[in-house]
Every structure is written in structure tokens, then in C-alpha cells.
Amino acid sequence: MTPQEKALIEAKANVFKALGHPTRLWIAEQLADGERCVCEFVEKVDADFSTISKHLSVLKQAGVVVDEKRGKMVYYRLKVPCILKYMPCIEEVVQAGIQEHIDMLG
Amino acid sequence: MTPQEKALIEAKANVFKALGHPTRLWIAEQLADGERCVCEFVEKVDADFSTISKHLSVLKQAGVVVDEKRGKMVYYRLKVPCILKYMPCIEEVVQAGIQEHIDMLG
DNA sequence: TGCTCATATGGTAAAATCACCAAATGTTCA
DNA sequence: TGAACATTTGGTGATTTTACCATATGAGCA
């Protein structure tokens, strides 16, 4: 594996890792139909302002979202919306796991 | 958010998390064109047998791969191949980040 | 049965992640 | 300018992840 290949796979893994936290995944899904300000997330998740802010920073640094400050507020949106096209496949993985679990019990 | 919704998003995040490690993502990509035995991974990655085995176990428990023992060897394959279908999008995220970095320097 | 090979599991120390609190920053408005 | 607001940053302790080593399991073969 060349250093370039290694760097690429690390960057890609980093994208998955960023989405690999329930709160961050939820945030990404919230951005499906457009931008949201930070305050909207804090309102809906029962978590500290700073916690949300740090999650957003992880998503931003992974390249999943971009932010824009307008007035007092900061708005976030998906940088590369195709990310969301992934979800049906992920749900398929989850469903397969659940089905297997049911089969095992039955 | 209902308990069901919460459980679903946690399960989905877990799939992303499983892919969110360079070695595990690499393993998943290796499985693109069919099954591989554990020994093949160990050969190509410079890591301990037990390390690879544990990564495989994470992927398995997340529902990404399935294993099958045949004779002395254990073979792994992708359970839900669509996982790989969206790599171009992930690469797009990464590329966008790199481009931005270049622009910033230039 | 006993040996060897392929893989898994348990233990452990170092590093990373997470959520909260407190304090800093930067923006608007009086 | 100064108060109020939205968000970020720094610090901390608890928990999780990771990679290695040593040991266990389980299959095939002598």
C-alpha cells in the first residue's frame, strides 16, 4: 500500500467514523432538507451546547458539513449530499441483523 | 424521538462506526470481489493475527460481514454488498476536502 | 490420541472519545 | 460602549478503543 493509498483510506475511514455516532448521524439526517442553525439541534437533542458544537466540528473536519455564519447564528449544511443516499443500504444491514436475531429466537 | 427511532439510529451509527477504522474499511473493500480467509488479511496488513481477528469481529457484529468455517480456515464475505456502492460518494467528500485545502494554500 | 495449523479470546497499557462545566469569542442592539 | 445572545474552546474525569502478548479452542492429519 502506497502512502497515497494509505492516506486515502484513512480519510475515507474518517468520514465513516464521523457518521459513526448516533448524535452526529442524526444531525446529518436533519440536514437532508437544507441548512439548520446550531440552536435547532440543541433544542431537539437533550445535550449541552458545547457537546453539539463539538459534534458539528467533527462532522466539519471530516468534510461532511460546511458552516456559514450569518448574523449571530451559525448555519450548517451537508457539503456532499449524496451521503444520505447511503442510508437505505445501512438500514438494510440493520434489518438483516434484526431478522437474523428473530430467526435465531424462533 | 421514540425508543424505536433511537434504537434504529444507534444501530445505523454502529454500522458507520464499524467502517470507521482504516483497517476495517480496507478489509471491507477487499471483500468487494468475493470472500477471503483471515490469513489473507494478516498477510497483507502488518498487524497481529489477533488484531485482525478482532476487527473482523467488529464488522461481523455490526452486520457488515458474515463468516463461514470450512476446514481449518474461516472465510469472510460481505453480508450486504451495497455497502461498497457508495464509496464514490465518500471519495467525493474526501476530494472536496483536499481541493479546499489546496485552494487555501494557493 | 497427540500434533500442528488457523483463528478466537482474555488481559493489559496507552491513546482516543465523550459529556459536562466554565470561560472566551464574536455579533447585534440599546 | 456595554449588555445580551449564539457558538466555540479549554479543561477534566469516566468510558471506550486499540494493539499487542499469551493462551485457548477446534479442525485435520500422522
From TrEMBL, chains A, B:
<dbReference type="GO" id="GO:0003677">
    <property type="term" value="F:DNA binding"/>
</dbReference>
<feature type="domain" description="HTH arsR-type">
    <location>
        <begin position="4"/>
        <end position="106"/>
    </location>
</feature>
<dbReference type="InterPro" id="IPR036388">
    <property type="entry name" value="WH-like_DNA-bd_sf"/>
</dbReference>
<dbReference type="InterPro" id="IPR051081">
    <property type="entry name" value="HTH_MetalResp_TranReg"/>
</dbReference>
<keyword id="KW-0238">DNA-binding</keyword>
<dbReference type="InterPro" id="IPR011991">
    <property type="entry name" value="ArsR-like_HTH"/>
</dbReference>
<protein>
    <submittedName>
        <fullName>Transcriptional regulator, ArsR family</fullName>
    </submittedName>
</protein>
<keyword id="KW-0804">Transcription</keyword>
<dbReference type="GO" id="GO:0003700">
    <property type="term" value="F:DNA-binding transcription factor activity"/>
</dbReference>
<keyword id="KW-0805">Transcription regulation</keyword>
<dbReference type="InterPro" id="IPR001845">
    <property type="entry name" value="HTH_ArsR_DNA-bd_dom"/>
</dbReference>
<dbReference type="Pfam" id="PF01022">
    <property type="entry name" value="HTH_5"/>
</dbReference>
<dbReference type="InterPro" id="IPR036390">
    <property type="entry name" value="WH_DNA-bd_sf"/>
</dbReference>
